[in-house]
Amino acid sequence: MARTSFVSKLYNSGPLILLYYLCISEVDTNLESIFEIFTLNFQIILIYFWVLKRPELMANGHVFVAGLINDVVMGFPLGISSLSYLIIIFFGTYVRNKSVNTTIASDWFTFLMAMIFSNLLFFSLLNNFSDLSFSYTKIGYNIFFTLAMFPIFWVLFNLYQATFIGGRDA
Fold first, then answer.
1. CB atoms near residue 59 (< 10 Å)
2. What is the pLDDT of residue 28?
3. All domains in the chain, ordered by first residue
4. Alpha helices in 35-78 (DSSP H)
């Protein structure tokens, strides 16, 4: 009995463990060095989906700390990623509270809005409070590929939820 409880808790912690791993490992930066224009902000997809579907698995404090870790690893001013992730949480929470039945189309559209506001905040703060330079074409590629990959990860996360976590959406 205790073993199944431990395994269940481990499966429930899977999205959170993945978030911390992504923030520590710089996977999106490493993909950019392999594929020239392919950049993906997987953390935003992960946070948005799990806040929308199972908010008890992705607590706000954990997301904030993961953002701080991401800032330290990437060399950004402290708190910029955290604020960006909190914007994603805000949109996900709002959509979860206002919608009765979510579909992939509604999640995708609201994800686009969340990503636009999150990236707007992130890059405006980065531009104003650091000397880091960035290319607007790379930002466009990042938004495009993140948005294009959202339905694939939506399906994969739904399969993970149905197979390992169970239960209904929030």
1. 13
2. 66
3. 2-165 (1.10.1760)
4. 42-53, 60-74
Question: Are the C-beta atoms of residues 92 and 47 closer than 8 Å to each other?
Answer: yes
In this structure, are residues 144 and 41 in contact, taking their beta carbons and an 8 Å threshold? Answer: no
Cα→Cα distances 101→90, 110, 170, Å: 18, 13, 10
53-78 pLDDT, tens digit per residue, is: 999 988 999 999 999 999 999 889 99
Q: Tokens in use for 167?
A: 């239960």
Q: How far apart are CA 70 and CA 52, in angstroms?
A: 22
Cα–Cα dist 135/55, whole Å: 34
Q: Are 76 and 29 in contact (CB under 8 A)?
A: no
Quick one: tokens of 98? 């206002």
**What's the pTM value of the predicted model, to 2 decimals?**
0.91
What is the Cα–Cα distance from 36 to 45, expressed in whole angstroms? Answer: 21
